[in-house]
Design brief:
Blueprint: H1 10-17, E1 24-27, H2 31-43, E2 49-52, H3 55-64, E3 69-73, H4 81-89, E4 99-103, H5 108-116, E5 121-124, H6 129-144, H7 148-161, H8 165-178, H9 182-194, H10 198-207, H11 215-227, H12 231-244, H13 249-261, H14 265-276, H15 282-294, H16 298-306, H17 316-328, H18 332-345, H19 350-362, H20 366-379, H21 384-394
Parallel strand pairs: 1-2, 1-3, 3-4, 4-5
Helix pairs in contact: 3-4, 7-8, 7-9, 8-9, 9-10, 9-11, 10-11, 11-12, 12-13, 13-14, 13-15, 15-16, 15-17, 16-17, 17-18, 18-19, 19-20, 19-21, 20-21
């Protein structure tokens, strides 16, 4: 029997119809940009595509689907791309997810900021199809080719993000004995800060080469000095952090808090106004509100929380703090309304239902309190506090 002919083009043909099975999430608030990206990606045989019009929606998608890479625009309302990046990289379940940032400018300060926050790739508009695909593949390759050392560094980050600071310090110090890695040194310093070993953290920052020091080093140093009561040094370091990275609103708000703490109210208001005059996001507004809550200024806190458009569940603790402040000021109806808003943001929180029940109990709304407690126990049958309060309220008045 004659041997079948083997076409030299068979392999080429197979490659031509091959599709890529990575799940890509594209985040952009502009429909036309999402459409353009869809065409470019499908032209290059990427078929598992999900699109999001906001950072908030993207976080919900990431929580529900298995995403291999996030491709996000920087400039978006309510939650910017850099804020989405920070949320991903600060989540112990998500921090290894690769993120490709797209920006309409290649300004050094933007690139620096993204790198500081752990971005995996950076693409500048306008870009063509080749640029997009090349950067996607490069970013995916980078995230999938970690060597033994990179795996250890990732473990330090995981330990830090999960609050296992002592273990993070031990692993960080072990790595630094054999390799001087600026990322490891910074994460070790951050963990030392959390366990209040301030002197060791200060010494480690001082030993860091100047070219490797970022705004994060200055910001951390400022927090350490403020914790030690060395306010002048603290303010200087926090100011230096803002000078090094003028785009990081989180660090600007840290500086405002330090100004308030040292009685420099005018300076605090000035730097807050700087954020308010530059299209603040929901996360900015929530952080500013918490700063005013720390000063006991309930009305200003409430004003800025009221300006939020689409707050994410991670911001609920600040709304809850505001509700507590309202309750302590005997503004019970206002507090109840804030708890209800919290539940619209995060309806699966048994603790919020319980807190609402406590408030209803205080103002003698027993029926509403029972309903809130029942909802709390549906979400978490092990909530003993909710169970005990429900049993107490179920006893008929005599």
């Amino acid at each position: 029997m004659a041997e079948p002919l083997r076409s030299p083009f068979k392999k080429v043909l197979q490659q031509a119809v091959k599709t890529f099975d990575e799940n890509l999430l594209v985040v952009d608030d502009l429909p036309q940009m999402r459409d353009t990206m869809r065409v470019m990606l499908r032209n290059n045989r990427y078929t598992n595509l999900t699109f999001s019009e906001s950072g908030n929606q993207a976080l919900r998608i990431i929580g529900a689907l298995s995403i291999n890479i996030v491709i996000t625009d920087w400039n978006m309302p309510n939650m910017t791309g850099i804020e989405l990046l920070k949320k991903i990289k600060s989540d112990p379940k998500l921090f290894l997810m690769p993120v490709l940032m797209i920006s309409d400018e290649s300004a050094a300060d933007k690139v620096l900021y993204a790198v500081e926050e752990g971005v995996d790739g950076f693409l500048v508009k306008p870009f063509n199809e080749h640029d997009l695909i090349k950067n996607i593949r490069r970013t995916l390759l980078k995230s999938s080719s970690r060597d033994e050392m990179e795996i250890k560094i990732a473990e330090i980050r995981r330990l830090k993000l999960t609050g296992n600071y002592r273990e993070a310090v031990q692993l960080g110090e072990a790595i630094l004995k054999v390799r001087n890695d600026p990322r490891v040194a910074l994460m070790t310093c951050e963990s030392l800060y959390h366990v209040e070993e301030y002197d060791k953290a200060i010494a480690m920052i001082a030993d860091t080469d100047e070219e490797n020091k970022t705004s994060k080093h200055s910001n951390l140093l400022g927090k350490i000095y403020m914790s030690l009561g060395q306010y002048t040094k603290g303010i200087m370091s926090l100011e230096d952090a803002v000078k090094k990275n003028s785009l990081n609103n989180d660090q600007i708000i840290d500086l405002a808090g330090a100004y308030f703490a040292t009685g420099q109210k005018g300076d605090a208001e000035r730097v807050i106004d700087r954020i308010l005059n530059s299209n603040p996001t929901d996360l900015n507004l929530v952080d500013i509100a918490q700063t005013y809550l720390d000063q006991g200024n309930i009305d200003k806190a409430g004003y800025y929380l009221g300006q939020t458009v689409d707050p994410i569940p991670a911001t609920v603790p600040v709304f809850n703090n505001y509700a507590v402040a309202l309750r302590r000021a005997d503004r019970f109806e206002d507090a109840a309304n804030i708890y209800l808003k919290c539940l619209r943001i995060d309806p699966e929180s048994d603790v919020l239902h319980y807190n609402l029940a406590l408030l209803y109990t205080k103002i003698d709304k027993r029926t509403e309190a029972k309903e809130a407690l029942t909802n709390s126990l549906k979400l978490n049958p092990d909530n003993q506090y909710a169970r005990e309060l429900l049993e107490k309220l179920s006893v008929k008045k005599t």
